[in-house]
Design brief:
Blueprint: H1 2-14, E1 36-49, E2 52-69, E3 72-83, E4 92-104, E5 108-111, E6 114-118, E7 126-128, E8 131-139, E9 143-154, E10 162-171, E11 178-188, E12 195-207
Length: 212
Amino acid sequence: MIRISLILTLLLILMQSCAPVFSELQSARTVGKNRVDVTPSFSTVGFTDEGDSDGVQNHIGIQGAYGLHDRVDIRLRYEYIWLKDNDGEGGYHVLGLGPKVGLYRDYIAFAMPIGTAIGDDVEDAWQLHPTALFTWPVYRDVLDVNLASKYLITFCDGCDDLIAINLGLAVSRDLGLWAIRPEFGILLNPGESGFYSHFSVGISKTFGKKDE
């Protein structure tokens, strides 16, 4: 019964999510006007409650950003998610789209993606993810530490809103051109026991003339 409840809860989240549940794989940096950034990624997600942990799902995805302005991006994301208990069979396609605005260049940004999931037995359902992004440039253009906090607003009767926190790195020889992005995060339902966690790795490549 615990496993069935866990899977049903996860399915409810997937049916309304715009991302691989809650990973971020980006920083507070914007890509720059007329530039394009592409980030393929892999994630694995588990659930922990009262000291017991269980693997739940894996997913692969890709997200892209286009710079409308030096401090404004439009971002598109696609993820394919499959449950581990299904031996990789079946799955869900998740789409998300939204703006990202740099509030304090390269240090603080705000994103507002909205999206839904598509799959067998999944009805149209949507979530809005207002997200605050913070970046600490440890070594300029070489190493960033990234923190993201998001509130997952659901648009269905009886559904709970969720909170996610992600902590990641961006490592490169030149972060303006490419980055390796390892990340860890948790997803909470306030007032409920247990939490989801993920570990993800993405690789970003930016195309277009770099700002001087």
